[in-house]
Design goal:
Elements lengths: L1 E7 L3 H13 L6 E4 L4 H7 L5 H8 L3 E6 L16 H10 L3 E7 L12 H4 L3 E7 L12 E3 L10 E3 L6 H16 L4 E6 L5 H14 L6 E6 H10 L6 E4 L1 H14 L7 E5 L5 E5 L16 H13 L4 H16 L2 E2 L9 E2 L2 H11 L1
Parallel strand pairs: 1-2, 1-3, 3-12, 5-10, 8-9, 8-10, 13-14
Antiparallel strand pairs: 4-5, 4-11, 6-7, 11-12
Bound molecules: nicotinamide-adenine-dinucleotide (NAD).
The site of nicotinamide-adenine-dinucleotide has 22 residues, from loops.
Amino acid sequence: MKIAVLPGDGIGTEIVAEAVKVLKVLDLPLEMETALVGGCAYEAHGHPLPESTLKLAMASDAVLFGAVGDWKYDKLDRPLRPEQAILGLRKNMGLFANFRPAICYEQLVDASSLKPELIAGLDILIIRELTGDIYFGQPRGRRIATDGHFPGAEEAFDTMRYSRPEIERIAHVAFQAAQKRSKRVTSVDKNNVLETSQLWKDVMVEIGQQYPDVALDHMLVDNAAMQLVKAPKKFDVLVTGNMFGDILSDEASMLTGSIGMLPSASLNSKGQGLYEPSHGSAPDIAGKGIANPLATILSAAMMLRFSLNQEAAAQRIEAAVQKVLEQGLRTGDIYSEGTTKVSTVQMGDAVVKAL
Ligand code: NAD
């Protein structure tokens, strides 16, 4: 089982170190190789996704990814910015299905800004299509320069585009995921305005007929954004396109109080996957040893489940995380009175001990 370990920038190195520590105590034949990605790769090799890193990722069963980015790279040309590394990995590895669970842990119910009764027991799965839509439409990111200089451009446009096969494959992923849960899928689009969304809805209905045991309903994206804060437990599996999914999955993750708790998985049709926390590189707290490593540790559990076929090991990690929360251990982002504040390393050590 070959794993490419790409810690990246900011807190990426700190949190990935803890996940690697946890993986190492599992006593599985894991072969882990580390490479640079993001801003640190740009510094060392002049590109956020060097050829050698991409090659390693493509040749691995799974990628364990930290986070990339720092404000200091904001002035770079777009193709050289750290975040482009993620788009490059998604595109080259064909990672079209993004799984973002939003789970509210009983012990953290007070960390949410919503009333406890709205989110206690929350367990929703957002499935976001990841390689189509406005982020990859052609022509993309076109600015109309009036005088040959983009900074003086008068107009800009991006193209929203989806093809039938792209929607079909993400629909299958969503219905199959729902079959293992409560057998309900909510498809989110904007079909009252957008042609892309009408095609999305039509294809969802068609594919849904192949899954008679799963109930399908549809919601407009603006309503979905409202329902997520009004009655989030109404949802089970929510499937949507790349841009709507980007926004709604961040909204859903904040329902649970801390983005430091939420893992994610991005899969291709061969089961290869990239596993990363839902949050970014948090430059504001980088190097302070206070970042929450649990989202990354839980991403490693998803990796064992989805790409390495090690369900039992995945469950062991998830149970160990539950245990440290029950013990009252908290990093700063999820700390509340009466609990014990711990550092990144102490949290990783506690998970190892619980295992
Ligand atoms: P962010 O997720 O990095 O941070 C948002 C806030 O949450 C910050 O206050 C941060 O301190 C806190 N936070 C995030 N993760 C935490 C953790 N594990 N423990 C404790 N607190 C945590 O988002 P941002 O500030 O908007 O972006 C910072 C950089 O990260 C930017 O360069 C952005 O482009 C990049 N980014 C990268 C990814 C990625 O690598 N997949 C995703 C989002 C943002």
